Amino acid sequence: MSLLFEEIDSQDSRLGVISLRRRRIPALGDRDIYEVKLGEEFLMSSMFVEAEEALATLGLAAVQGDRLSVVVGGLGLGYTAVAALKDKRIAELFVIEALDTVIEWHQNELVPLGKVLNADVRNHYVQGSFFDLATALETGFVPGSTSKTFDAILLDIDHSPTEFLNADNASFYTTENLSLMAQQLKPDGVFAMWSQNLPEENFAALLKTVFARVDSHVVSFYNPFQNCQSTNSVYVCVKSSE
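The structure assignment produced for this chain is given below.
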């Protein structure tokens, strides 16, 4: 691509205008950088994917057994889902995405990892609100499979447990609703969640009201724009045996 900037797609959504962009930064060489914006807010960039990948690797490292059934909340540019599928134990992966536009970007391979996800028969796109499906036990995450439970649920949607992509998401972060979601996990199942901030003690305490074990991990990565290390965090929670 000779252009330094290209808007690949832009569409209205229930959350506002969402757009997919591709650009190059001369100082970084011939590297295409993919970005997603919601309105004027940057949601994600292929420049910084270490923590999204760590969400999958750290979360799945805490899971026992084989033939795993896993949910990923939030498709984004696909990095968490692709990192999860590298685990050969996974038998099926359900990626929950609220915006059909984002799913179409992958299905039409407008983003690089769409080709990887489309080629893996274990991968399934589910269009719907993660937060609604997480607490709606009469339907569950997979339509038509009301009693289905999962080995792991990996969540990367909100910026942090206190900074929400949509204000309506705030109600999810309660003992009641986290407990409802946990009912869709198998015994010893794992819930893992990404945050752009360092671990928050209050949120870890909330998670401990639902899960038997809660660990917080700091993920560091190089930020070339600031010429320093940046940090995100991943919470990994294990459900008790039943």
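Interim note for the steering committee: Residues 50-61 form the longest helix (12 residues). Residues 92 and 121 are 8 Å apart (CA to CA).
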